[in-house]
Amino acid sequence: ESDTGAADDDNLTRLDNADAASTLKFIVAGVSNQAVVRVYADGVVIGVATASGGTVTVTTDGTTTLSDGEHQFTATQTIGGAESEPSATLTVAIDTIPPAAIESTAPEYAQVSVLYAFDANSPDESGQGILYSLRSAPNGMTIDPATGQIAWTPTADQDGPHQFEIVVSDAAGNESSQTVNVTVLGEISAYPDTYTVVEDDVLTVSAEAGVLTNDDPEEQFGPLTVSLIAGPSHGELVLNEDGSFTYTPDDDFFGTDTFTYRATNGDKLSNIALVTITVTNVNDSPVGQEDAYTTVEDTTLALTAANGVLANDSDPDDDVLTAILVAGPSHGTLTLNANGSFAYTPNADYHGADSFTYRASDGTLQSDPVTVTISVTEVDDPPIAVNDAYTVNEEQVLTVTTANGVLTNDTDSDTLHANLTTVLVTNPSHGSVTLNADGSFTYTPTANFAGTDTFTYRTSDGTSTSTPATVTITVLNVADPPVAVNDSLTAVNTGATHVLNVLANDSDPDTGDTLTLVSVTQGSNGGAVAVSGGSVNYTPTTGFVGQETFTYTIRDNAGQQATATVTVTVAADTSTGNASIAGFVYLDANGNSAKNTGEVGVPGVLVTLVGTTTGGSSVTRTVLTGDDGSFLFNNLAAGTYSLSETQPTALKDGLDSASDTAAVVGNDSIGNIVLTAGEAHTGNLFGESALLAKYVSIRMFLASTPPTQVWLREMVACGEEDAGNDELANEIRDGSQTIENVAPVAVANTYATTKGTTLTVNTASGVLANDTDADGDALSAVLVTGPTSGTLSLAANGSFTYVPTASFTGTVTFTYRAQDGTFSSNIATVTITVQATNAAPTAVNNAYSVNEDNTLTVAASTGVLANDTDPDDDTLSAVLVAGTSHGTV
Predict the structure, then answer these.
(1) For residues 750 and 766, is the Cβ–Cβ distance under 8 A?
(2) DSSP of 410-436, one letter per residue?
(3) In 10 A of CB 31, how many CB atoms?
(4) Which phi and psi angles does 728 have, rounded to 5°?
(5) What whole-number distance in Å separates Cα of residue 255 and Cα of residue 234?
(6) What sign for the dihedral angle of Cα 437, 440, 446, 449?
(7) I need a labelling partner for 752 at 20 to 30 A (CA). Which of 124, 141, 550, 804 fits?
(8) What is the DSSP-derived secondary structure letter of residue 576?
(9) Any idea what the Cα angle at residue 662 is, between residues 659 and 668, rounded to 5°?
(10) What secondary structure does DSSP assign to 506-522, as a single string?
(11) CA distance 271 to 193
């Protein structure tokens, strides 16, 4: 420590070898400014510093312990990364061993004005650098540094006790010392006294054992009394004149206490005498002091031992104390270490007072329980919003009060804010919501929506907001009726059946429901309407053009129904035709080519129509005139046509033979009839005239004389001037005779087929099979009116083929006459029943729910058949196939 390095003969130093060389300082001179200077001990760097100027102080870095013995120290400097060569070596010998203790014993007493001398002696006294010295010596006391010889002559004012220290040291500065207590006796000799008492006990000393007992041992000065000079420092003293005394040590004090006194005989005084009382230790319980700490909410309080729970605790015996936990905190976690340090972590978001208790222990005894109070100060925490769930029926408004609102389950750990409020974050996807600040809200689902909808919100305490919470609303499905929308459709009356998709614009609000077409009404103008799966088959009346309406009914899975009206605009068929040609065959009595009143029609005349449609198709059709001579060709396409008529031969009437063989009327034709689509071409007249001078009218009529029915033909003849004279005609008619050829008789027929199946009837079963002719003439069938639905091909031999309209069921008719070559029969009706084929019903899956331990009872209106269908509209019944697995049904 005192070495300079200027010479090697004094490089001896004392170093506490228990510590690393962290306190050594080296002053290195002759370095460059800003150079990095390193000090090496035995080749190992022990300190580094940067020079500021030409010198630098390097303090060792605490990584090296220097043992006793010689060590080589050098220094280098580094400039610009280049380190210099080491400096000259400084050799330092380290010595940490003190000299041997002083073995001689100093005298305990001295006399005023009498030399006090003795020789302090250490075994190392002869060693190099050994020196003696005094500490706290009384005035006038000296010591020889080399020999240890002490000399002192006390003065009168130096009587009493004295304490000083004799020190022996070596060249390295290591020391040994001896403490000497000496009492300078007065004229009356008062000697020191010693007593012992137990901690917290009272020391009571009688006169026989008192402080005067050992004073004036020669009894030169007669009876002595004492007077107190200085009382004790750690107790209370009552000193009596006879030397007895009572000493009460302070509570829990142990150790050495003293007081001083003088003895006197009333004339002379003794020296000041020292009384030493040793208070022996009795182990006392430690004393714990309550502690109080503060931390911030959500922050760990960590205290070292210096500030821990033991820092203000004490032990009367100065024992080392340890902390023992008695009860932990209520609102956090605690780690209490034995040295009183601890770490306390409050529960999340907790604020307020918390406490724990401990005892201080000295290893034997413990203190009373000590309470440690921790105040956790509040900080503003964001509130916590918790997800919510609600349920509402479809088409209903969900109204939630504050008591059941979204804030009900939300929390705020702070007391800084009185109320929480809501802040809407996202709206629902399938409805609308009105969210109030108090957590109440109103939710209106979108029309017909069923399922799960959500919206999100935050909770606010006025300063901070929570993370978003989700409100889930389950909208329960309530079966809604289907929606049937009126249809407006267009159809061309071709005689064929039209398939109408009436469901295309219908809907059901309930997702997944299937619409079923269950029924229809017939057309308002006679059109045939039928259900065909999911479509409607519509067949307008033959020749009908205009608007026709009918209704249809649909049903959903829940059995709920709706009805809509279909308006069909029926247009004429410009390709197959709705045109007609009509006219008369009559006796043109006045020859003016116009059918005048009173001019008689000619019945039973075969009228033939021949033509070509605008589409290039050839048309040939025949028809017999009616009783009034009229004829009609329906369902004609636009085109160019011609008419011709063929009259039967004249009747034998037994009168004028001139009429026997000649035709009564001629065969005429009307050509170049240009027919447009939908046109009704009337006024086509065949005006007949006789070949004789007279005009002859021929008319058939039916004479009914049971059991015989005979067709009769009546001839009416009159002169030209009598045309239109009904009286004359009647007279002549009354004189007519029964004809020889009898007209055939046609009988009605019935047939049957199934829906979608062509009916083919051969001659043997044809329409003529049950017809008769009294004359046995061969008969042929002539179609009068076609079928009301479907298509017909009627052969002359009575066989026919009938193709029903697709999906049509019901009754259809057509009419015909039987001809024997001369006469035609009555009009007979053929009825065909188109029977439905029984199609399998369609069953649709169902779903129901019931609470646990309850019975599910389902009425027929909502039962398993409610959403099932039958194409034939048959009444359905349910047949169990397999039962349930976890219940009875």
Answers:
(1) no
(2) -B---SS-S--EEEEEE--SSEEEEE-
(3) 23
(4) -65, -40
(5) 9
(6) positive
(7) 550
(8) T
(9) 125
(10) -B-SSTT---EEEEE--
(11) 13
Q: Is 583 exposed, middle or buried (0-12, 13-18, 19+ CB in 10 A)?
A: buried
Tell me, what's the pLDDT at 34? 94
Cβ atoms of residues 589 and 694 within 8 Å: no
pLDDT tier at 650, thresholds 50, 70, 90: very low
Distance CA 305, CA 291 (A): 13
Average pLDDT over the chain, rounded to an integer? 84
**What is the C-alpha separation between 643 and 499, in angstroms, rounded?**
37
Q: Where in 44-174 does DSSP place strands (E)?
A: 44-50, 55-59, 69-79, 82-83, 90-94, 109-111, 116-119, 131-135, 142-143, 149-152, 160-169
Q: How far apart are CA 500 and CA 517, in angstroms?
A: 12
Burial 137-169 (b: 16+ CB within 10 A, else e): bbeebebeeeebebebebeeebbbbbebebbbb
Which pLDDT tens digit goes with each residue over 595-610?
Answer: 888 777 878 788 899 9
What's the average model confidence in pLDDT over 378-391? Answer: 90
Neighbouring CB atoms inside 10 A of 347's CB total 16
- Phi, psi torsion values for 522, nearest 5 degrees: -80, 160
d(C-alpha 506, C-alpha 516), whole Å: 11
Q: Is the pLDDT higher at 240 or at 637?
A: 240
Tokens of 176: 């040994």
DSSP calls for 190-206: ---EEEEEETT--EEE-
Task: Give the separation between CA 860 and CA 145, rounded to whole angstroms.
Answer: 132
Contact in structure between 392 and 445 (CB atoms under 8 Å): yes
- The tens digit of pLDDT for each residue in 245-286 reads 999 999 989 999 999 999 999 989 999 999 999 999 888 899
**What is the rounded distance in angstroms from the CA atom of residue 517 to the CA atom of residue 532?**
8
Residue of 243, 241, 247 whose CA lies nearest to 213:
243
Whole-number percent of the chain with pLDDT over 70: 86
**Integer angstrom CA distances of residue 427 from 105, 470, 472, 644, 724:** 102, 11, 12, 84, 94
B/e letters for 824-838, b = 16+ CB within 10 Å, e = fewer, are bbbebbbebebebee
Closest to 774 (Cα-Cα) out of 742, 748, 797, 747: 742
pLDDT in tens, 288-311: 999 999 999 999 999 999 999 999
The amino acid occupying position 536 is V
So what's the pLDDT on residue 23?
66
Where do we find the tokens 């280098």?
76
Q: What does the pLDDT read at residue 733? A: 36
Of 569, 476, 475, 487, the residue nearest 520 (C-alpha) = 487
- Per-residue model confidence as pLDDT tens digits over 750-789: 999 998 899 999 999 999 999 999 888 899 999 998 897 8
| CA atoms 214, 218, 224, 230: torsion sign | negative
Of 359, 459, 470, 473, residue with least CA distance to 412: 459
> Alpha-carbon distance 811 to 888, whole Å?
48
Q: How many CB atoms lie within 10 A of CB 60?
A: 20
Residue pair 341/383 in contact (Cβ under 8 Å)? The answer is no
DSSP state of 208: G
Q: Confidence band (pLDDT; 50, 70, 90) for 456?
A: very high
Residues 264-287, buried b or exposed e (16+ Cβ, 10 A)? bbeeebbbbbbbbbebeeeebbbb
Q: Is the pLDDT of residue 12 over 50?
A: no
**Residue of 601, 573, 673, 586 lying closest to 633 (CA atoms):** 673
Whole-number Å distance between alpha carbons of 367 and 361: 6
